[in-house]
TrEMBL record:
<keyword id="KW-0744">Spermatogenesis</keyword>
<dbReference type="Pfam" id="PF24667">
    <property type="entry name" value="MORN_DRC7"/>
</dbReference>
<dbReference type="InterPro" id="IPR038765">
    <property type="entry name" value="Papain-like_cys_pep_sf"/>
</dbReference>
<dbReference type="GO" id="GO:0007283">
    <property type="term" value="P:spermatogenesis"/>
</dbReference>
<comment type="similarity">
    <text>Belongs to the DRC7 family.</text>
</comment>
<dbReference type="InterPro" id="IPR056291">
    <property type="entry name" value="MORN_DRC7"/>
</dbReference>
<protein>
    <recommendedName>
        <fullName>Dynein regulatory complex subunit 7</fullName>
    </recommendedName>
</protein>
<dbReference type="InterPro" id="IPR056290">
    <property type="entry name" value="CEPT76/DRC7_peptidase-like_dom"/>
</dbReference>
<dbReference type="GO" id="GO:0030154">
    <property type="term" value="P:cell differentiation"/>
</dbReference>
<feature type="domain" description="CEP76/DRC7 peptidase-like">
    <location>
        <begin position="210"/>
        <end position="282"/>
    </location>
</feature>
<keyword id="KW-0282">Flagellum</keyword>
<feature type="domain" description="Dynein regulatory complex subunit 7 MORN">
    <location>
        <begin position="339"/>
        <end position="613"/>
    </location>
</feature>
<feature type="compositionally biased region" description="Basic and acidic residues">
    <location>
        <begin position="11"/>
        <end position="24"/>
    </location>
</feature>
<keyword id="KW-0966">Cell projection</keyword>
<keyword id="KW-0221">Differentiation</keyword>
<dbReference type="Pfam" id="PF24656">
    <property type="entry name" value="CEPT76_peptidase"/>
</dbReference>
<keyword id="KW-0175">Coiled coil</keyword>
Length: 704
């Protein structure tokens, strides 16, 4: 059965790709926002014979329903479309598969619909709408009621083989009005979300506010449980969520079902076995359901294999085909997404702003602002997410309460920096840096630098070094030159502590676990790893012999193993000499670390003053259609060949070398960006489909 569904889905996707290509070649059929001269197809303005018969069936059903259930509201069966023509709601659904990988999952479809359209509230909020516009019209105007939101989303989900239904029912006030000001922002941390919410005033229209959402039934793809999708926000909910207060009816492109179950407790306990006529009354009895459609496909394949044909049974009245044309979504609409390229949503003590890529010169695509008070008057924290920046910046957080600024970067940027935080303290400051350790020659993973000390953490070093602490002389409190931007101005080191992992190649009694360089006291302290079945490690203190010869008096040893032979004076002298050499190297490494801190701070200041964004893929990689650019590149290449063939002096050759190198770098960056974006799209698609579309992933990576 799953194979039949997959084959039908692939065929529908192929047809969708062909139609999208046709639409891309005809500008008047693409999704536009201000096209007032759009001419609707004939099916929008007329009714076929089959549609007329269906409308008669629906009118008869509505009359019987009103007589049998006088206390219930009338059903939404045949609203007017944008041309003023009555259309049955099921025929307004147009299952449409898109070739865009962003629209291959329910999450992607829900995200697109929720952000691409603007809400038009129902007036009055307790009555069903008299009009239901087609998804194609909604995509042009970008304005829709909740019913039109759900119709577009359900059409997209049906096109990618989800068992989806539009639901007409009742919901909470906040959901109907798209008011999220009383809910915590989903991007906030869990501890912030758990704050006690204030008691809200009672809604006088609770249980009467009409709303439309989408039901997805289990059994299709990887869906294991039924769930709801609110098309206004794109969020999913369990079917017993308290936000949904009752259901009148559900419908897809094959049939319309009326709920016969009690909804006094909302949607809690509702069963969604639509084939059970005791629970759900269909408008078209005996019409083909989705399950029956799959079985018919399997039976046809089986009959074809055994070369036998059964006599077709006379069928009852079936749902006619949709009067809506194929839903085509342009790639540009997926990029801009929101009207004017931005969207602002207010949550409880928070404001969330979303921007289209390349809309802002600094590359910000999301900004979350949290406030201390309910009135959103005093800012507590501002967090921003970035994309396409040359400095690989991904996130920045400015915390007003902690007086700190944090930045997070992609892998591969300068210094292999991944995270950088600067915090102002009452006693000075603190800087934290995290690195990609295995991409650095020193394997540095993290560095913490404050007013009086610097800590460094290492991973995977061959010398087993894992930690280093450097304690500096406290700066003069009246010295204004001392700040977090100038660490090299106070290089007075007092103590250095280093710790090492266990080296299994050495005996524990000879493997140094910690060594302390007491620079001001001219001493070295060595602590060795614990021996088996021992609780105290061996220790050794060595003092530099400044004005006297080295002797055993310069060494103080605590040996745990009493049977071990004491080291000779010559061996101790070698240890002391090695420590003095290491101290000199250590001093140079500390200077390099402090210099790197200065360079990182200076680099970040320069990058912030000169923010650049990576070029779009289409701009960075010219297509074959750009004939003029191709000819220009060929002429440029010929000119380079002529220049190279000439005898050039040193200055001309150097200038030519740097010009060619710059062009080569630009092309490599463009190709790398192209591969990275294709890889990320393929990775997202692979996770959402659990590997069921491997051929599609390969096609995306290969650029097909």
């Amino acid at each position: 059965m799953e194979a039949a569904v997959q084959s039908a889905f692939e065929e529908q996707l192929r047809i969708g790709e062909e139609k999208e290509k046709e639409n891309s070649e005809e500008p008047e059929l693409t999704v536009t926002h201000d096209n007032q001269e759009f001419c609707n197809p004939e099916s929008y303005m007329t009714k076929s014979v089959v549609e007329t018969r269906l409308l008669n069936v629906a009118d008869s059903f509505q009359r019987q329903y009103t007589v049998l259930f006088p206390d219930r509201k009338p059903l939404l069966l045949c609203p007017l479309n944008e041309c003023g023509v009555k259309k049955f709601v099921s025929t307004t659904l147009q299952p449409s598969a898109s070739s865009h990988c962003e629209l291959q999952t329910w999450q992607g479809c829900a995200y697109f619909v929720a952000n691409f359209l603007s809400l038009e509230l129902l007036e009055p909020p307790v009555d069903l709408p008299k009009h239901l516009f087609s998804p194609t019209s909604v995509l042009r105007t970008r304005r829709a009621t909740c019913f039109e939101f759900a119709t577009l989303l359900c059409s997209l989900l049906l096109g990618i083989n989800y068992d989806a239904y539009c639901v007409s029912g009742y919901a909470a006030k906040e959901m109907c009005l798209l008011d999220q000001s009383q809910f915590p922002c989903p991007l906030l941390d869990s501890d912030v979300k758990e704050e006690d919410s204030q008691q809200q005033p009672e809604d006088l229209l609770r249980g009467l506010r009409v709303h439309c959402w989408v039901l997805v039934l289990a059994g299709s793809g990887s869906i294991r449980e039924n769930f709801f999708i609110d098309p206004l926000t794109g969020s999913s909910y369990p079917t017993d969520s308290s936000s949904f207060l009752g259901i009148e009816s559900v419908w897809n492109d094959l049939n319309y079902h009326v709920n016969m179950q009690d909804c006094r407790n909302g949607c809690v306990g509702l069963k969604f076995d639509l084939d059970d006529t005791n629970l759900w009354e269909p408008v078209l009895h005996g019409a083909t359901s989705r399950k029956q459609l799959i079985l018919d496909v399997l039976n046809k394949k089986e009959n074809r294999m055994i070369s036998t044909e059964k006599e077709e049974q006379p069928r009852v009245f079936e749902m006619p085909r949709s009067w809506v044309t194929f839903i085509s979504i342009h790639e540009k609409d997926l990029e801009t997404l929101w009207p004017d390229g931005k969207k602002v949503t207010f949550y409880k003590k928070a404001k969330l702003e979303k921007f289209a890529p390349y809309l802002n010169p600094d590359g910000v695509i999301t900004r979350l602002t949290t406030y201390k008070d309910q009135d959103c008057a005093e800012v507590a924290m501002v967090k921003e997410w970035y994309k396409h920046r040359n400095d690989s910046l991904e996130e920045r957080e400015v915390n007003k309460l902690k007086d700190s600024t944090s930045e997070r970067f992609k892998y591969g940027r300068r210094f292999q920096l991944l995270f950088h935080r600067i915090t102002s303290l009452s006693t000075g400051f603190e800087q934290q840096m995290e690195f990609s350790s295995y991409a650095r020659p020193d394997y540095l993973a993290r560095r913490v630098w404050s007013t009086n000390e610097m800590e460094e953490f290492y991973e995977g070093r061959r010398d087993f070094l894992c930690y280093r602490q450097v304690i500096f002389q406290p700066p003069d409190q009246f010295d204004d030159s001392v700040c977090w931007k100038s660490p090299l101005r106070r290089m007075r080191v007092l103590t250095v502590v280093e710790r090492f992992h266990r080296n299994a190649a050495k005996p524990a009694n000879e493997d140094v676990a910690e060594r302390v360089f007491l620079v001001s006291e001219e001493q070295f302290e060595l602590t060795y790893h614990l021996m088996d079945h021992r609780f105290i490690p061996s220790r050794r203190i060595l003092t530099k012999p400044l004005f006297r010869k080295f002797s055993n008096d310069c060494v103080s040893t605590f040996q745990v193993d009493l049977c071990a032979k004491p080291l000779s004076t010559q061996a101790l002298f070698k240890i002391l000499g090695a420590l003095q050499d290491d101290e000199a190297k250590l001093t140079a490494e500390i200077k390099d670390s402090l210099k790197e801190i200065e360079d990182i701070v200076a680099c970040r200041e320069q990058e912030q003053n000169q923010v650049k964004l990576r070029k779009r893929i289409k701009e960075a990689v010219p297509t074959c259609e750009d004939e003029e650019q191709r000819v220009e590149d060929e002429n440029s290449l010929e000119s380079w060949k002529v220049l190279i063939s000439k005898n050039l002096d040193a200055e001309e050759a150097n200038r030519l070398y740097h010009s060619l190198l710059e062009e080569f770098k630009d092309k490599m960056v463009a190709q790398a960006n192209l591969l990275q974006e294709r890889y990320e799209k393929a990775l997202v698609m692979g996770k959402s489909t659990n590997g069921s579309h491997s051929s599609s992933l390969l096609a995306i990576i290969n650029g097909n």
